[in-house]
Amino acid sequence: MSTLQVSLYRYNPETDSAPYMQEFQIDTQGRDLMVLNVLELIKEQDSTMVYRRSCREGVCGSDGMNMNGKNGLACVTPLSDVVRNNKLVLRPLPGLPVIRDLVVDMGIFYRQYERIQPYLQNDDPTPAIERLQSPEDRDKLDGLYECILCACCSSSCPSFWWNPDKFVGPAGLLQSYRFLADSRDTATRDRLADLEDPFSVFRCRGIMNCVSVCPKGLNPTRAIGKIREMLLTNAT
Amino acid sequence: MSMRSLTFDAIIIGGGGSGLRAALELAKSGKKTAVLSKVFPTRSHTVSAQGGITCAIASADPNDDWRWHMYDTVKGGDYITDQDAAEYMCSEGPKSVFELEHMGLPFSRFDNGRIYQRPFGGQSKDFGKGGQAARTCAAADRTGHALLHTLYQNNLKNNTTFLNEWYAVDLVKNANNDVVGCIAMCIETGEVVHVKSKATVLATGGAGRIYASTTNALINTGDGIGMALRAGFPMQDMEMWQFHPTGIYGAGVLVTEGCRGEGGYLVNKDGERFMERYAPNAKDLAGRDVVARSMVMEILEGRGCGEKGDHVYLKLDHLGEEVLGKRLPGIVELSKTFAAADPAKEPIPVVPTCHYMMGGIPTNVHGQAIMQDADGKDQIINGLFACGEAACVSVHGANRLGGNSLLDLVVFGRAAGMYIEGALNEGIDYLDASQSDIDSALARMNRWNESGNGESIPALRAELQDIMQTSFGVFRQEDHMQEGVKKLADLRGRIAEAHLPDKSNAFNTARVEALELDNLMEVAEATAISALERKESRGAHSRYDYPDRDDANWLKHSIYFPLEKRLGKRDVNFKPKTVDTFEPKVRTY
Ligand SMILES: Cc1cc2nc3c(=O)[nH]c(=O)nc-3n(C[C@H](O)[C@H](O)[C@H](O)COP(=O)(O)OP(=O)(O)OC[C@H]3O[C@@H](n4cnc5c(N)ncnc54)[C@H](O)[C@@H]3O)c2cc1C
Ligand code: SF4
Ligand code: SF4
Ligand code: FES
User: Fold this and answer.
1) Could you tell me if the CB of B406 is within 6 A of ligand 1?
2) Which of A10, A119, B77, B277 has the most CB atoms lying inside 10 A of its own CB?
3) Is B121 near ligand 1, meaning CB less than 6 Å away?
4) Alpha carbon B378 to chain centroid distance?
5) Domains and CATH numbers, chain A
């Protein structure tokens, strides 16, 4: 039983009027391949099938996709983690426009990231050496800065599906909190002011889909909770 | 056919660490510039760098001195490091690292709040006389990720223009051999445009994918090298490929030298810490070339681990979960995923794996690309710049020290940006490209688009990678290399007739892979011919048939001329401006 049944989402805007699922039989020779390896085998059979990939080790965030119903990175997902009854269904990340096959348009996701001003702001004069930061303060960035912008979280978030233009989404908010939590950043007040409206943060319903899919084990829901707390304290 | 053109003052091809650092400089200058990258910038290979950025910021040791770092760099490069370039990098380095911190890079910290530094291979105090130094600045074991995201974020802050998921196909030259831009393809739509620019920067990174087993990302196909070679420009020191001691056996994925910096060590099948025999002083932290060769010797002499005896073990369990969790969290993750080993409990199987290209486009410290005139004198190539792994400035000589690439990226990315800004202010005026100049840059792409039948791209790529792996690995010898060169020549003919079945426009990754295959071919051939012709052993280039370093004949850069497929020599710079020359010595650790 080393033949894997793969069902793959196909759509080429130049030739297809609608997307469809295509079946492939893949001989894994009994190996517990990564899903990315399976895609490589499929591409050898059919070079018109397209997907993104770069690092092949889970650090660049290129190959977020939906594997048997769950978002994750193809390159660090072994078949044994997702395949059930010898079947693997591969779809593009949900909620984002499809460009072709497994490749989605990440524009809206990136715009929400840019919107939170994802860079350190500090008005104090720059010292001649580095700014000092205690190990305890630095520890506060762990679990935040490691985000690889793969969009697995935001594209699994119902609130993001309905309001991708107004709700920042888990990835953007995690990065927002990464700068709010940084002892070197002095723009806290402005950052919070920008998030006060009913949508940017408060659309989060605490459903935690984001946490369960993040391939880096990060916790956007907790970060969102912290931002809420800061917003509420700020308001009083 | 009417083709759109886009016009910039400067175009930076590559959105990795070096390209983004150059772009930042130019964005601040107000010049019309853009970064063109085949992947979204944070997906560039720099994101994978783990261990850190080496620089004498005098944090771990308040008495640290950039001159000691320079000494290590020159010695590490087995004395074909250009000393003016190493001097520039090591002395300017601290400024660049502090700048990164000011931009927000989340470095790990010491208790006193300063940047955390760890020991790496080949590092010493007091010009090799003061013992092991700890000079590699780190953000846990995710330094490349932290660095690349920080640079991308600061480019957003400075409103840099990005052409993301655009693929640069070939350089465009005018009648005077000046580079005046490139042909590029928007991957999403397939549109092909002529990008006109007064300065074209190749920041396209490495080419580790010429080998079957590599730590490099799938996108590391040496596109910038291929473009420059096809334009007829020479390459320097292409035989110098670094094999990293600790690639995960089977997967090729890297585990950082920082593992050994934090106290890990290598053992053979008898559990012996064998590096004590090969490098009594530095042991596991000797130069990478030295450690990689020692591992291969252990394996060849029957002391390798595993069923086939074809790898060794990296032992980390004695460091304890806390150190592993705090200093090496990414390694724990990678080891569990790719070696099915929890390093807190069991050793990681590792084997020397292709990692870094020391050679590349020869440049000066301003990033200006260089060729040789008829008398063998350096001559600037108008309009062409290079930085990062694609360039050979050369700070790494015959063997790069760990952590020195990230420093190279930011120091020389910045230097190139500053130089271009100055040159643009003074005014640059090159002849426009004619239609036939543009057509010749389009020829290769048109060939693929018109291909009707022929061999398949993945199969040819696999064959190329096997040839390189077999004939141009850690140890090399004449007859194997000659055979390799012959096979590559044959392969070149077949690739020229290979087939691109998918001719569609929208996000056609098969077309990208076809164009990349041509570049792999160029890099492989330049490597092969350079390796065959350098008849000595130096740094990463190790030959059974010429086991010794030959300073009388080869204290030189090699320089490969693609049109004649000929290897020449170029002088190494031994004239730093502010310190005495480091004279070549026997290299021991
Ligand atoms: C696993 C690993 C770990 C490492 N760890 C360290 C470390 O700890 N310390 C250290 O100093 N060094 C380390 N290195 C080396 C270092 O990471 C690289 O040398 C460095 O990141 C290269 O940066 P770059 O800017 O030159 O290129 P890259 O980061 O590779 O970027 C190349 C860019 O060029 C673009 N590009 C390429 N071709 C084209 C084209 N045809 N058209 C358009 N765009 C194109 C790509 O999209 C990309 O944006 C490591 C390397 C590896 C493999
Ligand atoms: S917790 Fe909030 S952000 Fe996360 S998936 Fe649910 S609604 Fe979205
Ligand atoms: S938070 Fe996790 S899932 Fe979301 S983009 Fe970042 S790495 Fe991906
Ligand atoms: S290819 Fe980089 S995360 Fe999967």
Assistant:
1) yes
2) B77
3) no
4) 23
5) 3-104 (3.10.20.30), 107-235 (1.10.1060.10)
Measured in Å, residue A58 CA sits from the centre of ligand 1 at 16
CB contact under 8 A, A130 and B107: yes
pTM score? 0.97
Tokens of B261: 């910096």
Burial of B129 (0-12, 13-18, 19+ CB in 10 A): exposed
Residue ranges in chain B whose pLDDT is less than 50: none
Contact (CB<8Å) B507/A130 = no
A43 touches chain B (CB under 8 A): yes
Neighbours of B434 (CB within 10 A): 12
User: Looking at residue A1, what is its pLDDT?
Assistant: 53
**How would you list the strands of the sheet with B117-118, edge to edge?**
B53-54, B136-137, B117-118
A31 at the B interface (CB within 8 A)? Answer: no
Chain B CB within 8 Å of residue A37 CB: no
The answer to whether the CB of A185 falls within 8 A of the CB of A179 is: yes
User: In 3-state terms, what secondary structure has residue B440?
Assistant: helix
- Asked if the Cβ–Cβ distance from A99 to B506 is below 8 Å, we say yes
Task: Tell me how far CA of residue B484 lies from CA of A224, B238, B356, B479, B546, in angstroms.
Answer: 57, 15, 20, 9, 18
Distance (angstroms) between ligand 1 centre and the Cα of B219 equals 9
Q: What is the pLDDT of residues B306-328, one digit of tens each?
A: 999 999 999 999 999 999 999 99
Cα(A59) to centroid(ligand 4), Å: 6
pLDDT by residue (tens digit) across A170-191?
999 999 999 999 999 999 999 9
pLDDT tens profile B139-161: 999 999 999 999 999 999 999 99
Whose structure tokens read 């012996």? B272
Give, as one character, the DSSP assignment of residue B345.
T
